[in-house]
Description:
The complex is a heterodimer.
Chain A: H1 10-15, H2 26-34, E1 43-49, H3 55-58, E2 59-60, H4 65-70, E3 88-89, E4 95-96, H5 104-108, E5 112-119, H6 127-136, H7 148-154, E6 166-168, E7 184-185, H8 200-213, H9 218-236, H10 253-267, E8 273-278, H11 293-312, E9 319-324, E10 345-350, E11 359-360, E12 381-382, H12 383-394, H13 400-403
Parallel strand pairs in A: 1-8, 1-9, 5-11, 5-12, 6-7, 6-8
Antiparallel strand pairs in A: 2-4, 3-4, 5-10, 9-10
Chain B: H1 2-46, H2 51-61, H3 70-77, H4 79-86, H5 95-101, H6 111-117, H7 121-130, H8 136-147, H9 180-192, H10 198-215, H11 219-231, H12 241-253, H13 261-269, H14 272-277, H15 286-292, H16 298-307, H17 319-324, H18 332-341, H19 351-360, E1 364-367, E2 381-384, E3 394-396, E4 399-401, H20 408-419, H21 421-435, H22 442-454, H23 459-467, H24 485-495, E5 499-500, H25 504-512, H26 530-533, H27 536-550, E6 557-558, H28 562-565, H29 580-592, H30 598-609, H31 625-635, H32 639-646, H33 655-665
Amino acid sequence: MNRRFFLKSGGVALASIGIMSVAPSFLERVAQAQNVTGGRRKTLIAIFQRGAVDGLNMVVPYGEKEYYELRPSLAIAKPQAGNRDAAIDLDGFFGLHPSLSSFKPLWDSKRLAIVDAVGSPDNTRSHFDAQDYMESATPGVKSTRDGWLNRFLQSKPDERATPFRAVSMTQNLPRVLQGRANALAISNLADFTIRAGAYSQSVQGGFESIYEKSVRDVLGGTGRETFEAVNYLKKVNPAQYRPENGAQYPRGAYGTALLQIAQLIKAGVGLEVAFTDVGGWDTHVNQGGARGQLAFRLTDFAAGISALVTDLGKRMDDVLILTMSEFGRTARENGNRGTDHGHANAMFVIGNQVRGGRVYGEWPGLKSDKLYEGRDLALTTDFRDVFGEIASKHLGNTNLQTVFPGYGLNGSKFRGLLG
Amino acid sequence: MSSLKNLSLLSTARRASALCAVLALLLPLFGPFSATAQKQQSQKSGSRLAEDQRILHVLNRLGFGARPGDVERVRAMGLERYIEEQLYPEKIADAGAEAKLQRLDSLRMSTPELYAKYPQPNQLLRRMQREGKLPPELAAAVEERMRSNQPNMPAQSVQSNSGAMAAQNNDAAGEGGRDNQYRRAIRDYYLQNGLRSPQQLVAELQASRILRAVYSERQLQEVMVDFWENHFNVFAAKGADRWLLVSYDRDTIRPNTFSKFKDLLVATAQSPAMLFYLDNFQSASPNAQQRRRPLLDGPMRARRQNQQGMPDAQQPRPQQQQQRQRRGINENYARELMELHTLGVEGGYTQRDVQEVARCFTGWTIRAPRGAGGADSDAGTFFFNERMHDDGEKVVLGQKIPAGGGMRDGLMVLEILARHPSTAKFIATKLARRFVMDDPSPELIARISAAYTKSDGSIRETLRAVITSPEFNSQAAYRAKIKTPFELAISAIRTLGGETNGGPAIHQWIARMGEPLYMYQAPTGYPDTAEDWVNTGSLLERMNFALALASNRIPGTRVDLSRFAGEAAQAGVSGGAIDKARVMERFIGVILNGEISPQTKLTLTGQLNAPLPAPSGPPAQAADFEGAQDDMARRGGRGQRQMARADTGRVVGNPEVVKIAGLILGSPEFQRQ
């Protein structure tokens, strides 16, 4: 038998196989993860724009005259040669905010798809509730204990799973990854170690041997696994990382998070689900148009994703980047040159396997009788249709009833983002 | 597509059957082993604990672990008497802990006072603007901010890169942003007018929980506060809840920890914190709304809404009014009341019951729920708004609730639920899981729930049934629970006789290990079994916490290892001069009551002889305890970021001694209780 088995917590874990109760050692799994014959490991990178980005100025429906009527001071001008403040044309109707110019090559090479008029069917306009629903993927139901990405992990048992199967580059584990399946929150890879200054090595050795010798229960098993992961990451040497292909990540927590996700992917540690978030989208006041507050945030947002795609290069064959935000913003600008909490929004889906160069979802339009509750972009795609398609087609988990309970999701609701 | 699906189904099936085969292979291997284990297990569960073990067990389970001398003290007074005392916390003198709480002013303020003293900046500015009282410096800063095209962050926006902690770190958003001037103006105004940042409120409440758990003589009271605040979970980062939680802890939970469950249930149902968290405050009968709409159109409506403080801090300005018109029944509270607070998910209610219960609670709301910028002297208090109430007849769990009952409807529901056998069983299960073991037997649950029913839901009597059960006092329960991060942090400080100010730095460690207080988002509260607490990331942080504590690297928290290790604990004492074996024995005695597995002990002994690298440079100094204490008031909720910068991992004190203490605190043995 060439696999080491351990019982994470005796009989309890046996009852729930899939929580890594039975698994080969970390190193063996990493080796396997790198040499999978029947299909390479796929990775999803989910980026949450917390605070509700203004989708209507991110993906501009410039072909709609109501857009300009509703937003006299915020609207982005129609595409126009030589005007750097104008929308960047995509398909003759939609355009990108000029701050997203680095997405244009991805669109042109059909690696970027947009889903528009997408979101949660729940009508809440509370950031808190809407984020909660987007992360639990059970709109309207608050008591769902786990996040959908965690249920994704639970319902796709993976003998090769490493501790790095699901990593959130955040200070705390976000709702979307909370649950029974192992998921890591790391604010900085350099912190994922025993921290005792000059004595770290020696103290770590002490803990390692204590946990190595300890009884084979939940603590002993997890302890051994922890140190295998710590030691592996040390060899990867996060501090020495140099992005490839001239990729330049933006400074700050968001750029660093994306850079370290790229690092984990390249290190082959078995990353399947990565998550991070970025804020500053709650533009009630002085939102700006082609320039200003939102433009500034979008520049940073796009720079991070572009750097990630550049850095990963050919690896984007197996990586999919998905962006989301809890709801959109009011179609009409408010009295403070800003926008308030709205309803449907836009998502970006990026990857070499994506059927890009298209805007998915029916466009409901901005005529007043088409607006949701008379004020917001209406919803035509449930976010679970997008999540489900990615979980199923990109990550190979067809157990959609478990990941999206009570929704009755099946392939017929998919938008066809992936082949 | 379908063939793809079949393929992957097939491979899942293949994997599953492979797994079964492997397990079948393994069973013979494990056979003798598990038989022995089972025998040990049955011997264990059959035998009662030795007296000193029982004392320790009680100090761990009915409290947050033993301080030096506690075992002797309890032995001297008698364990039964100690337990009896703990069941009546109000009779235990607790001046020491009370003194530690003195500097946390917010704990003693009413909710309207909190709104006034800890105003949300945007809301405060709007109110001053409206009243024409905006001071010129602030007006200039606001004007500048409006004019500038630079990015700015509304203080209430939901920020990033911290997941569930997001909303707590609002003030982090603009730091490094370009509106420092605006921020400075706000800060100066706050300083000059004795106002404080709302972020500080949650930090003070968290500090109060830590301080009480460490210092209070009413240990069981603190355990029950932890239990009930988790059972009736409220998330501090939801809207107004950070202002409402102070009263929730003080006026709703603490007076009712040992009361009749029904009283606790009524208190939570009427608590503004819960009403806000589960949205009941905005639940209104659609009929009632139609009735009042004609009355309230136009300016009158706007005025009334202002008086009620309806303006929403998160959704400012004109759109609010439109949004608030989406009024109607909100079922959230009704559902969670039955699923999570009383009957349990399989407790025998239907969606129809949820709807009926929701109707009963229409009109249970909050006056000026978001504080009205400190302008309303009744802000944030419970009131029954008849005009929102659905006054028709309802049927709940088969019982008729007659029309015209008004506020009595909700009270009747709570009565029905508190008396329901499913509630008895649900509460019994949660108590047994918390106090005895992760998987309590059906027999134990039945006995506890019988005690609940017999005592008409007396929490004290129910708890007594738990504590006196043979299961609680069995070897099988001894050290069978994995400590929660909160329990681990507190018990580590207590076992070393340490001191803490409960400040953001120590709380941040609890958060890193996975249990930030008042920061669990879902109404379920934190789960309570080993599987949920032990994972790679959190276990690593538990070890790092042990080291940080042992080397006095947590600002505002201090342990004195020399108390146990004598001179040897001082920095600069050379390794050769320490009787390492003696120091180790001492710590094993203090931290683990001498109960250590032979393997761990063997490993520790081996570690003693492993040489440490020679220190470079002068010995590091401990984090300044007093300084950190003063500092806390200024920093408020910012401990997290300070912490991230400060945590270099340098070891303070004698590294040999720190290492021994750290390894023992971080050992598997100390993770259990």
